[in-house]
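P.,

For your records, the input lines for the assembly:
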Amino acid sequence: MALREWIDERFPLTEFIERHITKYPTPKNLNYWWNFGSLAGAFFAVQVITGIWLAMYYKPSTELAFDSVQHIMRDVNYGWLIRYLHAIGPTGFFFAVYIHMARGIYYGSYKSPRELIWWIGLAIYLALMAEAFMGYLLPWGQMSFWGATVITNLFSAIPVIGSKFVIWLRGDFAVGDPTLGRFFSFHTTFIPLGIIGLLLVFHLTALHRVGSNNPAGIDLDKKGPAVVPFSPYYVTKDLWFISLIFTVYLYFVFFKPDFFLEPINNEPANPFATPLEIVPEWYFLPFYAILRSIPSKLGGVVAMGGAIFILAFLPYLDRSPVRSARYRPIKRVLTWLFFLNFLVLGYVGAHPPFGVMVLIGRIATFYYFLYFLLLLIIPAFEKTRPLPKEVEL
Amino acid sequence: MKKIVAVVALTLIPIYAMAAERGPIPDVKIDVSDEAIKRGEEVYKKACKVCHSMKYLGYKASIPAEAARKSFGKVPPDLSLMAKARGKDDEGAKYIYALLTSYVNTPEKNTVFPNIAMPPPLSKADPEFEQKARDVAAFLLYAAEPTAKERERLGRYVLAYMVVLTALLYALNRKVWRGVKKKG
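Structure tokens returned:
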């Protein structure tokens, strides 16, 4: 093909396609837990595309924001569809990302030589939380305003400079027009494209340098019978699975859009009336529970931040040479408990911290951190099962 | 410690206040047919529009907001999104129906919304009282999302398409993987 040759002399197009798609060696024994990375990528694409269209009609000012969202819902052709896709998309995105991370923890995908992939992934997760948090302010409803007020207020726990820092974050003494403007700017430009987009490229570049981990957790010969080229095998496997999950996603978009949306956010922001209950979106609930489980504001904030940052130390806390929890009987049980515990934290985060809820929250918070300590000490006595020599489909 | 107690108290007391504030919501079927919505719109114009605007439908309140505040102690809220602001799906409409039909002759005035500022907008003496409350609830539900019917109509085609697409992609994937050896 003449055009292809012309381009290849000037740009490594064919080389790129072969290296990353048609000839990229992928373990053939990957199970469906390995599908959630590409699923997250698909949700990211939906958020970017629908976000571009929303930004055409949305007005980032406290006077116009709420009305402009209703303009999109009522007057813009298929505006309701674009907005619901964008409002419910994060549920799918975080669902995919949490399972993707859980898979990494269970199969030891953070271990050498994949530490950098893990860290870049955590940075993506942090950026994603910031992205979701800032985006939630934009509709300028009651929960938008009060959620942003409560969360920015957390930074007042920083000793000495706390209250000044909060004003600096908000650009005003309270969440207001300057806050909305900066959140809109960060939400639509720097964070999704400058940070998340760029880190995604790094995430995949690092992955393609060392190759995917696999359920057996053993190193595979990249030229041997244990691998298949990414295309067509994982192109079709990823596509059909994305199609399946998107069917569920679109069911909610078209038939149950209220399910993941807070009714009170259909009231415009009112700084003089606090909603009866301020609850974060479901994907923040486990960390919200940790925040509330520590009976000190600063302590709560530190624990919440620590709960995320401790994940970065996994490659050093877990020193076992065996990657996959399949062959680690103790880590396997502890890890399933850790996942269950995370769900319990989410449940606690959704309920008022009274009575038994406080106790459950504290025990769950304790186990959350204990898990990492246990990972550090179990290799000393855990009897790992023998690793397979070859992989099975 | 004091701060956290204050924060917790501030976020929680209202939940109990809410539990105390809201009476039980009857499980009533809201008819959302075009006729019901049309009748509801007439009810709104006669009984609600005096004080309540519906700005996204172009309805202004008949009396100035200030006059309403002087009479009732607060500015009557805009009703465009009220049905969606008070519950998911049709819960908000049921709440509105319950509120309109729960006025009582006691000091708390209304069992669903005790100490409500709004005087009863519909008369219990009216033989169509219940019907009107249901219809105006249906109208408010429609008004909160006029594109809802179009959404559900289009959704059926989209879901049918997605189910077929998923099945085809699944079959394609099965075919692609058929020749791959089990071990390696």
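Two observations worth noting. The beta strands of chain A are 25-27, 227-229. Chain A touches chain B through 53 residues (CB under 8 Å).

Regards
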